[in-house]
Amino acid sequence: MTNRGFTLWFTGLSGAGKSTLAEIIEQKLKDRGRYVEVLDGDIVRTNLSKGLGFSKEDRDTNIRRIGFVAHLLSRNGVAAITAAISPYRDIRDECRAMIGNFVEVYVKCPVSVCADRDVKGLYAKAIAGEIPHFTGVSDPYEEPENAEIVVETDLESKEASADKIIARLEELGYLDPVASSCATAGDEDDELVRQRLEELGYV
Amino acid sequence: MTNRGFTLWFTGLSGAGKSTLAEIIEQKLKDRGRYVEVLDGDIVRTNLSKGLGFSKEDRDTNIRRIGFVAHLLSRNGVAAITAAISPYRDIRDECRAMIGNFVEVYVKCPVSVCADRDVKGLYAKAIAGEIPHFTGVSDPYEEPENAEIVVETDLESKEASADKIIARLEELGYLDPVASSCATAGDEDDELVRQRLEELGYV
User: What does pTM read for this prediction?
Assistant: First the structure.
């Protein structure tokens, strides 16, 4: 069984769907018997970066800290999933260089759609000028140029995005294809049945 | 094979021998096929706590961050080893409560012996009043009251201290006794020979 650690680095606007996808992937990886840790932007700010604000410098420091912890986890066999906006390309690339086993997922979604969703009510405040340095409104977001995976959450379902991510992780050798992995007995049986049916031409 | 994660928390004065013992234990655990990460006080200050000083409040924040990272590692099967002075009992106990699988090692050594060793030349400066808040000289060190392990580095060799720590980790169920662990082939052979000789009454 493959248990190479890696970092799955989500990046994208607030409301694009990073945390939602991170949770789905977390469960899928746990179902395959992997150790998984989600480093959510808010959790890290509370525990490692209290006192930092949202200026470029403070954001960079926060992202470097997330990168450092993801590095420690992934070099010890863990699947580390980060779900912070991480708007600046240079710091993401710095983390990529440090970590090595780095898989970048661009969670792409137009700012207008994120603002319509406005899950946390932050866009309304940002557009009204009440939140300074709000990514996509009053602060820049630099799109990845070489992300391993791009998901478009305004165009595809979250299940489709999650499947795309899992398939790419298998392709990159970070996950075994399901049939040979440590899935739960139930999943394994289902998969065997599916394969059998496929061989017989039913699916 | 047991691979329960845990945190081995060294505490003691500067120069008591925390880092030296951490390195020896790190190697012994790696030899047994375990994932190990040493969180050295200096490394963590550079990567997670730049800007923090040595006031009680800043020290507490630094130790809480080390504890948070050790927690993430040890709940993912890793043996996390911390080697910071961590002078305050309440924060160590807070980390103990958060982490759960927590093994405290008091690296005991009189301040006079540490000052004589003065590996980093810091005691001379601290005694001359050039370094404020220096633990054991101008800042308090609170001894652990219920450490799982106490080693006395002015009285015992580092090998003896390390053996004591490994034996206690086996006793606590965090490590398999060597015979059944994932030791290297060479060690395993030696152990088999020893067992055979023992059965035959030679040792």
Answer: 0.85
